[in-house]
């Protein structure tokens, strides 16, 4: 079985290539970035692609985006994405491509048996879809409306924030203390799991989440 590997770390790339060779795979190309992956697949026409999610230059989701692009060109190309974590952007697109066939999404730290890993690659190459249960759990959790976590009062406060009211104005409208409004807003920011930054930016992100939920 002809395989193209994409992994930016030289040691991991060579190690994965050696591992696959031990189990009878023919590694026809091993590359270190997403652009090289696209070119290698076009040239080698492999039976399977195994790619890391984080790749140069941004080390975010370049490998995953390349996998999605490859599946757009060839929906039947078997692809296995390997990652340290669940990359939500593009993960759903990859798993939904090619009618959901011949796709793998595995978390590196949860691969405990190399023989089982090799068998998983063969299953994906044969058309099966294999997704780590933790990936499924996190993607399903992500799809839930984040506003569902907020109490009725927190939603009231967030709605007034979205209308542009200050904490003092919200306190007057809802007959609360400013300290109480601040506490509600803090709870909203925490429940929406917004990245830590200055409070102004976090309020804007909270408002955007609220507005998306009203569409």
UniProtKB/TrEMBL annotation:
<dbReference type="InterPro" id="IPR001789">
    <property type="entry name" value="Sig_transdc_resp-reg_receiver"/>
</dbReference>
<dbReference type="InterPro" id="IPR058245">
    <property type="entry name" value="NreC/VraR/RcsB-like_REC"/>
</dbReference>
<keyword id="KW-0805">Transcription regulation</keyword>
<feature type="domain" description="Response regulatory">
    <location>
        <begin position="2"/>
        <end position="123"/>
    </location>
</feature>
<dbReference type="InterPro" id="IPR011006">
    <property type="entry name" value="CheY-like_superfamily"/>
</dbReference>
<protein>
    <submittedName>
        <fullName>DNA-binding response regulator</fullName>
    </submittedName>
</protein>
<dbReference type="InterPro" id="IPR000792">
    <property type="entry name" value="Tscrpt_reg_LuxR_C"/>
</dbReference>
<keyword id="KW-0804">Transcription</keyword>
<dbReference type="Pfam" id="PF00072">
    <property type="entry name" value="Response_reg"/>
</dbReference>
<dbReference type="InterPro" id="IPR039420">
    <property type="entry name" value="WalR-like"/>
</dbReference>
<feature type="domain" description="HTH luxR-type">
    <location>
        <begin position="143"/>
        <end position="213"/>
    </location>
</feature>
<dbReference type="GO" id="GO:0006355">
    <property type="term" value="P:regulation of DNA-templated transcription"/>
</dbReference>
<dbReference type="GO" id="GO:0000160">
    <property type="term" value="P:phosphorelay signal transduction system"/>
</dbReference>
<keyword id="KW-0238">DNA-binding</keyword>
<keyword id="KW-0597">Phosphoprotein</keyword>
<feature type="modified residue" description="4-aspartylphosphate">
    <location>
        <position position="52"/>
    </location>
</feature>
<dbReference type="Pfam" id="PF00196">
    <property type="entry name" value="GerE"/>
</dbReference>
<dbReference type="GO" id="GO:0003677">
    <property type="term" value="F:DNA binding"/>
</dbReference>
């Amino acid at each position: 079985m002809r395989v193209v590997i994409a992994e930016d770390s030289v040691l991991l790339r060579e190690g994965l290539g050696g591992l696959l060779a031990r189990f009878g795979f023919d590694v026809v190309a091993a590359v270190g970035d997403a652009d090289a992956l696209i070119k290698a697949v076009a040239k080698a026409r492999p039976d399977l692609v195994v790619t890391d999610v984080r790749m140069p230059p941004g080390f975010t989701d370049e490998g995953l985006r390349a996998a999605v692009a490859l599946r757009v060109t060839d929906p039947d190309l078997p692809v296995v994405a390997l990652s340290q974590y669940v990359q939500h952007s593009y993960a759903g697109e990859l798993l939904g491509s090619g009618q959901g066939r011949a796709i793998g999404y595995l978390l590196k730290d949860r691969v405990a048996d190399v023989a089982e890993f090799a068998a998983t690659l063969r299953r994906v190459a044969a058309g099966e879809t294999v997704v780590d249960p933790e990936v499924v759990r996190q993607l399903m959790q992500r799809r839930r409306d984040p506003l569902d976590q907020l109490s009725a009062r927190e939603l009231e406060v967030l709605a007034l924030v979205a209308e542009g009211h200050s904490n003092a104005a919200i306190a007057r409208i809802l007959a609360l203390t400013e300290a109480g409004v601040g506490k509600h807003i803090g709870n909203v920011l925490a429940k929406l799991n917004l990245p830590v930054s200055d409070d102004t930016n976090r309020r804007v992100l909270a408002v955007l989440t609220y507005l998306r939920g009203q569409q």
